[in-house]
Structure formats: C-alpha cells, structure tokens
Amino acid sequence: MKLIIERAALLKALGHVQAVVERRNTIPILSNVLVKAEDGFVRLTATDLDMEIVEEAEARTEKPGVVTAPAHTLYEIARKLPEGAQVTLELSSDDPRMTLSAGRSRFNLPVLPPGDFPVMPSEDLAVTFSCAAGELARLIDKTRFAISTEETRYYLNGIHLHAAERDGRKTLRAVATDGHRLALAETGLPDGAAGMPAVIVPRKPIQELRRLLEDLDGDVEVSVSEGKIRFQLGAAVLTSKLIDGSFPDYERVIPRQNDKVMRVDRAPFAQAVDRVATISQEKSRSVKLALTEGQLVLTVNNPESGAASEELSADYSAEAISIGFNARYLLDVAGQIEGDEAVFEFADSGSPTRVTDSGDPDAEYVLMPLRV
Prior knowledge:
Blueprint lengths: L1 E5 H11 L14 E7 L2 E7 L3 E8 L1 E4 L1 E6 H10 L5 E5 L7 E5 L2 E5 L17 E6 H11 L14 E9 L2 E9 L3 E8 L10 E4 H11 L5 E6 L3 E6 L2 E6 L18 E6 H11 L9 E7 L2 E8 L3 E8 L7 E6 H10 L4 E6 L6 E5 L2 E8 L5
Antiparallel strand pairs: 1-5, 1-7, 2-3, 2-6, 3-4, 4-17, 7-8, 8-9, 10-15, 11-12, 11-14, 12-13, 13-25, 15-16, 16-17, 18-23, 19-20, 19-22, 20-21, 23-24, 24-25
Helix pairs in contact: 1-2, 5-6
C-alpha cells in the first residue's frame, strides 16, 4: 500500500475517527484505525464495537491496500506536521511496519492484521430521512445536558429520539432526563421519518455526532432500525448501536396545568443564581427562590459558608411561593434559553416546575424541586 495525502485532509479525517478510540483498550486492534487506500481516496475507520465512524478523504493512491495503525499516535503525528505538508503512508512487503513520511520527517509505526479489525455488521435500516444539520445540532444542544450518568438506569443514558405530534403538528422530538430534570426539543417531522421506531441514542455517539455536525452545512441522512442508527454527514458516516430498553413515559411528568407563572430576564437571572450559589453546599447546590408580586429573591443558607441573597425584578402576580432548586440545573436550563425571558410555571413548592423559552416554542424543560 502507498498513498500521498495533504496533511490538512488527513488531520481532519483522523480527528473525526480517532475520537471513537478509547485510550485504554483490552483488545489491541481497537486502538488502531483501519486505513484503506483506493483509487483517488483513502477510507479511515475506527470502532469501539458499539459505534463506528468511517470517513473518506481525497488522496493520490500509488498502490491500493489496507493496513491498521495506532489511531492516537497517527493523529498526534499528523497534528504536529507542518501545514501544507504532503504525507506519504506506505506499507511494503519487506517491512512489517507502516512508514509515514513528510518532508524530512519519517516514522515507522507498528501495525496489526487488517483481517482482525472488527466490522460492524450491517442490517436493514428500514427508515431513512434527511434532516438539516443545524436542526439536528439544535435538538442535541437543547437536551444532552439532561442525559443521566447513572449506569444502573441505563435506559436514561442517552437521548430518546422519536416521531411525535403536538397540536396537530407532526414533529421529530428529542428528550433526555436523569430523573431530576427533563429537557425536550422538537422540530418539524422530516419527510420519510413518520415510520421511524422510537430509539434511545447513547451518550457517546451523541457527543461524536455533535462534533461532526460542527463541520457540516446542509443535510444529514439518518437511517434507523430497532437496533442501530446511522448518520451520513458528508464524507463521514457514524453508525451506532442503540440502547436496548424502554424510555419512561415522560409526558406524565410534564406539568401542563401549573397556574403560577413567572417571567424573568434570562441573563440577570442566570448571573444572580451563579453568584449566590458560590456559597451553596457542594452536594446539593440548593438555591431557594422566594416569589412575591413583582419580585424574586434568591437565597442560599450554608451553615459552613454563610448566607447569600439577591433580589431581582420579575413579572409575577400569583400568590407568594418559595421553592428550591439545584443551582447547576437552573444554570443548565438558562444556558439553553434563546429568548430574553425565561418562563417558569409553578404549582407548589413540592411539585415539578415547567420552564419554557420565550424565543423557542419548540423547547421545554422540567425541574424537580429540592427541600430547602
């Protein structure tokens, strides 16, 4: 095998695929990237057995072939080569190592047999549709902060993606929850997505998909089956297994009848929460919101660090209420709100609170209160 590729093209492709590779692997071949040189391009593949990323890049192929080489080492070498360098990757029959050369630099890297590289089996991905890259990125950004990290509730360790309907409008909806907070975002249902199964996409593929979306304009082709999901993003293809479990009936926990409504300027609210939370207890991070007509008072009492309070103007005219929340959760929600105002809907101090965005009617959040 022998190919010549421009350093920037190699670095971009390696940057996408090597992120899949775990730093510590008990299976040596999983530390490698599969390099396949074909006429006019090179295809790079990396996998962790649950997810696979394949990316193609233009290259001058002098001798087609296939090899596997250490993914992170290859990426670090490409990253440190000078801009504009022409990189030659070569595997000859008289040397068991792959040679990488660029200018006066030369590296010999260990290889493993490409036949040992695991291939993610393809299956019939029955439903295929296209979604704008920007809309897919928005669905991820609005919900991923609420993904649970608790492994015992594995079915919450991802984003629930499914076709839904609200007020007669068909949507593609993303939902994530960790049991303490819930985030929901939706967009118009793409053509062809009506028959898609409801799936749970794991946290790691979500993170890698979001990274790939940063470099993409246009549409993403999404293919779904009961067990796998595939995203075609220009020259890159991400395929992942899905979480085999049932997402809870989240609609039951979204309060639609809360009658106490507060409107508050998002930026001053987030800044005030951040300030008073400075002395909150590390474990609970609790902040009390005391609401009276036209006014919101944020309070923190910590026996070890003291107390803090801050007053804000708020559009509120219902009966007085005091309710506590985790400050981190309040800041996470405030960080996703696009409009100038955040709208909080309360029932009482012990019931879930619904938060909506004045600038995005297709997103909403639920926060469970704390005792304070």
